[in-house]
Amino acid sequence: MHLGYLLFVKMIAYSYIRWSSALQTKGDSLTRQISKTREFCQSQSWVLDESLQPDKGVSAYRGKNIAEGPLAQFLEKLENKHIETPCVLVVEAIDRLTRAHWTEAEKIWRSIIDAGVTIASWQTGKVYSPEFMQASPVNVMMFLMELEAAHNYSDNLSKRLTSAWRKKKELAINQGKLLTRKIPGWLAIPDAKAKNDPPECFSVLKDKAKSVKFIFERYLEGAGVDTIVQNLNEKDAATFSNRSRAWAVSTVRRLLRSENVIGTLVSNRYIDGTPHADGNKIEGYYPAIVDKKVFFAVQDELSKRKTQKGSHKKVITLFTGLCKCSKCGWNMALKCGASSKNDDQLPAWAALVCSQAMRGKGCSYQTFRLQDFENAFVTAYLQLLLQIWYRPQKSRNVEKLETRKKEIEHHLENYSASIQQNEGKIPAFVLKKGAELEAELEQLENSLQNNPAPLQPYGYPYQKLQGADMLPIQKNLTNRRLVKNLLPTFIDEIQINAAKKEAVVYNLQINPVTKKRDCLKIRTTKALDEVTGEKHFFLNEKLTFFEHELFWR
Ligand SMILES: [Zn+2]
User: Fold this and answer.
1) How far apart are CA 170 and CA 182, in angstroms?
2) Cα(322) to centroid of ligand 1, in Å?
3) pTM score
């Protein structure tokens, strides 16, 4: 570490200024960003270099500003060592750098930081230096979270309500011009009111607004989006469009997050036809339909339920993507009872329902209990599952050798391609390196021959589950995940007739005699054996007792 350098020579800070809409160019965005950057650099004792031209009207959303423009020039100068490091790149917020998906954005910032550049945001005051990022994974997480927030246009965007936008709002109000032609489905602009300023120009369509309120109230009562959609369709609640008479899950989900309901106009930029909020908002633009308290309570609840759902989704059904409704061919959707307190536990009950029926239109709403089906399924398939599960695996060492072998073969291919291109003019180092690789390859092949993948004895696989692994799956999600991952390797499709409580499991293999997919019919029943009290199910119409209830208590 060049401590002397840091102590006596001031760091050079480059300011990167970008704004993306024509609207902002006309306004005060540039002056504001420049003066804020100067202030911030002074507070950090950095020398500000303003030689980078501001990036005008280039959207960072898809990383276009990385490929061309001043940032691209900075990156190029950095690469060609025309910029001395360590130095600082000052931006308003991390999203000014790039709004690409965080996986892409991560690559971009890593290349910048790895080159010895500190990235700093004057808006948050956060300074991400290479040393800071290396110090702890938590610091990297912090950065990534800021990136992710940028991509999602988080709440800090409301702070960026520019004067330019305010001017436009004034214009809109003074001249009665509407900022956008598209208005929420529960509002209308009657001719008589059209000359009024917003929000007075709007009329609330009462029956549609009633649907909106109903959705927010039901959600806070604890109903899920699927249930709400079903309720709406059952009672024929007014939809927003005159074309469609049925409510869809996507509409309700979008509505629950839309600030339009509390009267806020959020301006969008359209990228490939999809709207992306650009951070400009006007409160009180529309008549409010939903109370702010209710709206923000719903936002809290949305994020809470999102995480709950996320942790369950991984393990809740073994049959993700495999189950189809035998009546209409749609996917079967999952319906769960209340979840238990412990995150690692499954909900009290779960059932599969035709997703078309879940929407409340078409097909019949019938539930197929997942617990019964899983227990029957595991009993029927246990031997096969265990055989696949404990299939001998190659040792790690052999795997390593094979990976290296592939690598070398790849290199050699590249070399021979470049040799062919250069028509005989082969640099000496290429020849030397090629010979080295060939020698290594020969050695590898020898050791692979002498080191065949050891066979692990099957033993009696069932015994392996006798220990801790035999506990109900609530306490052993590992087993559950394992089984879940194995199923698509031998199961093609499961057709479910929820009314008959019947599932036909189709294997991937085609029977050589019948030329059809082999299948197994499982019919669950609540009947108990009169003598033993054991539960049973029908396997290809044959009475079978549950041998295993591995997965549910
Ligand atoms: Zn169906």
Assistant:
1) 19
2) 14
3) 0.38
